[in-house]
Amino acid sequence: MKRSLLLLSLFALLGATGPGKETGLVAYYSFDQCDARDETGGGSDGIIHGHVECFCGVEENGLLFDGQGAHLEFGGRVNRVFTTTDFTVSFYFRPLQYTTFPQSLLGKRTACDEQNMFDFRLDLNQQQMLVDVHETEHKFYPELSPRLDSTTWMHIALVRAGNRAYTYINGALRRESYRCSGVDLSNSTPLSFSHSPCIRHGRTLPFKGILDELRVYDRALEPDEILALYALHPVESAETDCYTYLPEKRSPALPFDAERAYLCAAY
Fold it and tell me: Which helix (DSSP H) or strand (DSSP E) does residue 61 occupy?
């Protein structure tokens, strides 16, 4: 019965026309072509900066970040999702370097403060995903940072549903948070990956590892939908035989002195 319900949820989530036409899906990045094209056709393409390689992902290819400043910035309508309304973000990642300081993952944050922002940072030292969703220092969703069970492939999802927010790891609910009033995340900074402003001004490092299967929705997915989404690519089935090559077109590396200092300080 449970398997039947999961299959029904998966069919309802993807619809009859495939993942590119999912209900509420604003942007989808499979990274299978070793670029950051928005495969919904909605125009929220990402721009690759720095040394990013094509590497095996949780399904086909993912993007491998060098931990030295390589990052993504996303344009288009995906940036209008993070305001006062419901949303879901979902992605897979695999860290390839232990660091004392947290590593920057996905976020939309103007400065290294708690003003109108959300940010994912990977803290391998504490075996935790730091998830910050703030309007101000005093107005935010508390207790959203889940513990991590492994340091290999992981799937994480953040869901905002009205006055509540949820974090999921590998399809399972890990944290739930409540605010009696809304939290406004609006800012003009582009959505980015491995590009938190805290890299320059706080003890945060660029990410070294692989990103795959990034999705952004303008609605709150239900728990069975999150589980169905994870069931598409369970981490137990992730590819292990990897090969790598460089994309033909690559932006020049962006070395930051602060990044070098933090990388050195971590060892």
Answer: strand 61-66
